[in-house]
Design goal:
single chain; 23 helices; 73% helix; two-stranded antiparallel ribbon; 2 strands; mainly alpha; 509 residues
């Protein structure tokens, strides 16, 4: 439960702090990013995401860790002492080489993540992939401290990206990007240097795309006889925009490239250091060749929305006339809340603290519904973010007898799969301008939903972590769709949420 608790607390703290900090920043005109020549946004946006994320990471960790154990990861013991087989006989580096190299690596990685923060959701999504991979690597080698810190960072980023996907209402700012870069560098170095079986080259792969982007830009500037630190529009995301891709498409392309790297880090973690380094250099060469080819010839790459221009006319008619949405959406509106109610009904062995918390949230929703209905959407969203993981976890690990049968349980899982398909259909065929719209964050959610259940680890399979994670992500995504598409009509969602809370609270009555 510690993993789930830290993840949830990080998400909830980040999400809950974001609106208040944004309002404060705008009202006091502090930490606000104004439009400019090198900016892609056209209005003032608060840059307080980093503060909210830092609180979302540190607060749950301070609760679970003693101060000396927490601080040791960030302030001491992080040093590059070996480069593995890249040096003869795996020679240990002397302090004269080790300290400057460590400093260069941490500062360089911090700066690389900072410079990648050029489009909405870009640095946050890249970092989320990095920390998710770091967390899993730490889990595999039994390093709980680094694993929990990485998990907290994933939770904080999940909460932040809720506000940072295009068009972003909040930016992370330099404080946020440097916090992420510093954390990614120190955690990856601490993990690989402290685990002899892991290649010390893995940090280069994990932070591969931001590092490649930064080095390419700095070398280009020096070739042009300019300062390597001069600002310009030569980053990869600028080139993608210049090639004709939309904002979200450019972010998605970089997500895919970074996903390739983190998957390679997982698969090659025990391979030869030289093999990993050569593989990264080959990847970098291929990326540079692609960008150089299309930029010089002025060609536009295959657009991510080209499929929509080639699909059959029947599908276009279905979207225009709303036939599919009218038939599917009512099932979705009833079915998703019902899945949560059933999960709470099937949950047994509910901890007393969870029953008490459910009762408190039940009262909060009821009072909000009666007294301050305009805040009901935010209260429901926060409650569901807390309720869903515990409901799914308890129903999977401690199910009631009527759900534990293979046939019933298998059918229940099939319902989750069916509604996952319905989500994609609804998000694709929705015609509402103010309804739910797909974003690059959907790619991250899909990656996690597909990857986690299929991780090749017996312990994960025994505790059904993969299935639990996939269900949680699916329900999170589903309620985001529902809350957006319902546009203030929360009666059914509120009633089902209160029923779910009542079922959990009944265990303490």
């Amino acid at each position: 439960m510690i993993f789930l608790s830290i993840l949830l607390l990080a998400v909830l703290i980040t999400i809950s702090m974001m609106p208040a900090l944004s309002t404060l920043a705008i009202h006091c005109n502090i930490a606000v990013d104004l439009p400019g020549e090198r900016k892609v946004h056209t209005r003032a946006v608060p840059r307080i995401g980093g503060v909210a994320m830092a609180c979302g990471v540190i607060m749950p960790l301070l609760y679970w860790f003693h101060a000396d154990r927490f601080v040791i990861v960030f302030l001491t013991g992080v040093q590059i002492r070996t480069l593995g087989s890249l040096v003869p006989d795996n020679t240990q580096l002397s302090e004269v080489i080790s300290l400057p190299l460590t400093l260069l690596a941490i500062v360089g990685a911090t700066n690389a993540i900072n410079l990648s923060d050029g489009l909405d959701g870009l640095a946050g999504g890249i970092s989320m992939l990095i920390f998710a991979t770091l967390g899993y690597l730490a889990y595999l080698v039994g390093c709980q401290t680094i694993g929990l810190i990485s998990l907290a960072l994933v939770g904080a980023l999940f909460g932040f990206l809720r506000f940072n996907t295009h068009p972003a209402s909040v930016f992370m700012g330099d404080a946020g990007s440097q916090f992420l870069g510093f954390s990614a560098a120190t955690l990856s170095i601490a993990l690989t240097q402290g685990t002899p079986t892991l290649s010390p080259v893995l940090p280069l792969i994990l932070l591969g795309f931001p590092i490649l982007d930064t080095l390419t830009v700095m070398v280009t500037r020096m070739v042009q006889r300019r300062s390597p630190f001069a600002a310009d529009k030569n980053h990869f995301h600028h080139h993608l925009l210049g090639l004709g891709l939309h904002h979200a498409e450019s972010v998605l392309v970089i997500y895919v490239l970074q996903a390739v790297l983190v998957v390679a880090a997982l698969l090659l973690r025990y391979f030869s250091d030289w093999f990993i380094l050569i593989g990264y250099l080959g990847f970098s060469s291929a990326v540079l060749f692609f960008f150089d080819r299309y930029r010089k010839k002025g060609r536009q790459p295959w657009r991510l929305d080209i499929f929509e221009t080639r699909i059959a006319g029947r599908l276009r008619i279905l979207k225009r006339e709303g036939i599919m949405i009218r038939r599917i959406f009512p099932v979705f509106v009833v079915g998703i809340p019902l899945l949560v109610v059933i999960s709470c009904l099937a949950a047994t062995d509910v901890p007393p603290y969870l029953s008490i918390a459910a009762l408190v949230l039940l009262i909060v929703i009821g009072l909000t519904w009666i007294i301050a209905k305009k805040w009901l959407g935010w209260v429901l969203r926060g409650t569901l973010y807390l309720l869903i993981p515990f409901a799914v976890y308890l129903s999977e690990t401690y199910p009631a007898s009527w759900l534990s049968g293979s046939v019933v349980h298998g059918g229940f899982n099939i319902l989750f799969a069916v509604f996952s398909i319905l989500i994609l259909i609804i998000s694709k065929f929705s015609r509402r301008n103010n309804g739910f719209k797909s974003s690059p964050m959907d790619f991250l959610i899909i990656i996690l939903a597909v990857a986690v259940p299929n991780l090749p680890d017996q312990r994960i399979q025994e505790y059904q972590i993969g299935l639990v994670a996939a269900k949680i992500i699916m329900l999170y995504f589903s309620f985001e769709v529902l809350l957006a598409e319902q546009r203030g009509k929360y009666t059914l969602i509120a009633a089902s949420t209160m029923m779910s809370l009542l079922l959990l609270a009944s265990h303490s009555i």
